[in-house]
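Risk register update: the risk of archive-format incompatibility is retired. Evidence:
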Amino acid sequence: TRTQDMLQPNQSDGKCRSMTRSSQEFKHKILQEMGDKASITVSVTRSQRKGSALLITNIVFDYEENNRDGAEIDEENMEWLLRTLGYHVVKRRNLSGEETDREVRNFSKLLSEHRDADSTFVVIMSHGERIDNRDAILGVHYHQSRNPNDVYFVDKTFSHLNSGNCPSLIDKPKVILIQACRGGHPGGVEVRDQVPESDSWVHREKDFVCFMSTIPDTASYRNTKTGSHFINYILDVFCEWAHKDEIMELFWKVTNRMATCPGRTENKLLPGLERTYLPKKFYLFPEL
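Archived output:
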């Protein structure tokens, strides 16, 4: 049974989403135009892809006011997208900060799966906050006064998957998607799209791209009926353009659509790319 038939999600207009198929002719054309393999990540076809993706979604929290209504839609949508792209999805739900850290670390140790993979995705969706100028994912036991330490810092993901701790993913794209607030401010005010430079050596974090739902110090938004705006824009763009665009172009299209979305005033949305270094173009070639 095709993945689309099992999990096919709907667009905001009620129509079913479908992934535009790539073609062997296009893949051959791209490889010829790029000249040599030094400038492109040669992705396998969907049917050959053996890579895994980690999907973590926090929906139900200890304190009911923190529950993320509609987040299950994001989970379904992302699982459909990742499976459609050919990834085996490791799905986890409702984790503490410590459990999130353990799951990401365990995922980095899937040596046999990563060794045969061409790439990987890590997707984390929860509440978020900026703590001491670091992006933090809030665990399900978090409370600002009663349990403020139940967090997972996003930068740990880079440590778990870097060349030293996950050598089986060296020279392979590692795509990190974060759907979470990065502060409480609305996006319609003036914010600085800057974070401190990383102290990590470039070669230890090679082949990473981290796409976050907002820029620093800014809130993210979710519709309880259709899911988060960020995830919906990703699905729309990937379904329409992943058959011909490399991943940085896809993320640029997502950013452009979010930046120019009509009808939003104070609640402006603008995603951010963080700690990104992809020396090669990465094409997903869906549905080959």
